[in-house]
Design goal:
single chain, 293 residues, alpha+beta, 434 Repressor (Amino-terminal Domain), Endonuclease, Chain A, 2 domains, 8-stranded mixed beta sheet, 13 helices, elongated
Length: 293
């Protein structure tokens, strides 16, 4: 336990030093002026910036540094991903991102790009967007006012291409019931021709086999757990989909809470990623059997 505490402290010092260097560079101030405004000697500031330093300054010094450099003290200490000061964080820690579909798609693309190299965790609205075939997308968005089927198709193609990048790691959680409802043509899929449903399931089988383990799809029991649609972009941010808008969480603690929620869905998954393709094959076999579907 003592060793773990030491490691954590050293990591915090390393993050503090790196972010202090970054904030100094962006401030446009020279070190002498910064030290004077903070109320410390320049030699003390140089010591804080030294790679050999393994101590954090006192809390009041951290607060003074944050004030002078106009950054968040939590950001300096690695407790938040948001560089903004406390007053701005209170306003921006939870953002509502409404707007035109093109702007929303642009933001999603930017968030994925910023999370490159991190694990993406995703709970879809129904089926994962990145594995939907064009016929399904056109059906789903034919009466949708906020987005056209062409826009949705381009977005799906972009996400599929993103999932194939070598540095990409994506985990998806869906309820078993959502997949079975699609296969059976229930709910919003009641008017979707069975030939399209067959083709979609066959495509999902191919993609799951192709992209695994870079893409891992878990199926949980929707009677035991519930989740709204959300995406967690590594440690950068998390976005909860609310229909025509996103609730965007930027602070470390909010992201951790939503990550724990996602991990809880994984723990109760009744179909694990290596078995999803077989589950879909069974669904396809039932569709190909006798009787109406």
């Amino acid at each position: 336990m003592i060793q773990q505490i030491t490691i954590d402290r050293r990591d915090t010092v390393r993050v503090f030093r790196s972010r202090l260097v970054d904030a100094l560079g962006r401030s446009g101030l020279n070190r002498s002026e910064v030290a004077r405004q903070i109320g410390i000697d320049r030699s003390t500031l140089s010591q804080l910036l030294s790679p050999q330093n393994d101590r954090l300054p006192r809390a009041e010094t951290v607060a003074a540094i944050a004030t002078v450099l106009q950054v968040s003290a939590d950001w300096l200490l690695g407790l938040s991903q948001d560089v903004n000061r406390l007053a701005d964080i209170l306003e921006q820690s939870i953002q509502i991102e409404p707007g035109e579909p093109s702007a929303a798609d642009e933001r999603l693309g930017r968030w994925h790009a910023e999370a490159a190299g991190y694990k993406i965790r995703y709970v879809p609205t129904n089926l994962p967007d990145l594995i939907k075939i064009p016929e399904l997308i056109r059906y789903e968005f034919q009466h949708y006012e906020a987005k056209s089927s062409d826009q949705a198709l381009l977005e799906s193609e972009d996400r599929l291409a993103y999932s194939r990048l070598p540095e990409t790691e994506i985990e998806i959680c869906s309820s078993v019931q959502a997949i079975e409802e699609f296969g059976g043509g229930y709910g919003i899929w009641s008017d979707l021709d069975i030939s399209i449903r067959r083709k979609q399931i066959a495509e999902m089988i191919d993609l799951v086999d192709e992209i695994y383990p870079t893409l891992r799809w878990f199926l949980y029991d929707g009677r035991a757990r519930y989740s709204v649609p959300l995406t967690i972009f590594g440690p950068q941010r998390a976005a909860v989909y609310m229909g025509q808008m996103y609730f965007v969480f930027n602070t470390t603690e909010h992201i951790r809470v939503l990550t724990r929620h996602f991990d809880d869905l994984i723990r109760v998954a009744v179909v694990q990623p290596p078995d999803v393709a077989d589950f879909l094959r069974g669904l396809l076999t039932r569709l190909d059997g006798p009787g109406p579907h």
